[in-house]
Amino acid sequence: MKKIGILTLTIMMVSFIGCNSSDNKAENNAQTGTTEETAVTKTKPSYGKIQHVDIKPEIDKAMAEQGLRIFDVTCTSCHKYDERYVGPPLRKVTQTRTPEYVMNMILDTETMIDNDDTVKCLLQEYMLKMPNMQVDEKDARSVLEHLREIAQQ
Ligand code: HEC
After folding, report:
1. How many CA atoms lie less than 13 Å away from 20 in the CB half-sphere?
2. What's the pTM value of the predicted model, to 2 decimals?
3. Ligand 1: which residue has its CA nearest to atom 29?
């Protein structure tokens, strides 16, 4: 029995350490902008129903404005831009995650929480499952554009 207890503890510690280090990596990426790690993260395929998002280099202002309206109503109860709140801060999220990751967090939240290692670690940290907010794909795309815009401000 004692052995099993120690084993469980060790596994728990290892999984916590795993999460912490990937979190640090994400933070480093946010600070330095483009590291090699970011490049790897950015090309990684995402879990969830969105497998490709068309992104133009310049921000679509009208779309971003629409995204801000949806974000204010649907997301600000849990997310701030620069501070930890119920969920993680989102200002730099488009620099550390792929567009597909962000879209799937909004549209296919359950699949992301169940499968994506980054999200599993966030869940350990925030102790709450982000709910699927029932946003449609067009609105989710505009929220992504808003998040791309605030990342530059
Ligand atoms: C009820 C609270 C809640 C609401 C509302 C909410 N989220 Fe979340 N969100 C979370 C939590 C908590 C996490 C961390 C993952 C987890 O624990 O499920 C998260 C994680 C995320 C992530 C991943 C962040 C990262 O660093 O990888 C993104 C992106 C995100 N949310 C976007 C949104 C958007 C956009 C909306 C609005 C459409 C929204 N969330 C609404 C609680 C919420």
Report:
1. 6
2. 0.83
3. 102
pLDDT along the chain (153 residues), means of 10: 56 58 41 43 79 96 98 98 98 97 98 97 98 98 98 94
Q: Is 130 in the pocket of ligand 1 (CB under 6 A)?
A: yes
Q: What is the CATH number of the domain that holds 29?
A: 1.10.760.10
Give the chain's domain count: 1
Kindly state if the Cβ of 135 falls inside 6 Å of ligand 1. Answer: yes
Task: Give distance in angstroms: CA of 132 to centre of ligand 1.
Answer: 9
Show Cβ contacts of residue 116 under 8 Å, excluding neighbours closer than 6 positions.
46, 47, 101
Cα–Cα distance, 45 to 101 (Å, whole number): 8
Q: Is the CB of 113 under 6 A from ligand 1?
A: yes
The CA 4 to ligand 1 mean position distance, Å, reads 35
Range of the domain at 113: 2-151
Q: Tell me how far apart the alpha carbons of residues 68 and 79 are, in angstroms, rounded to a whole number.
A: 13
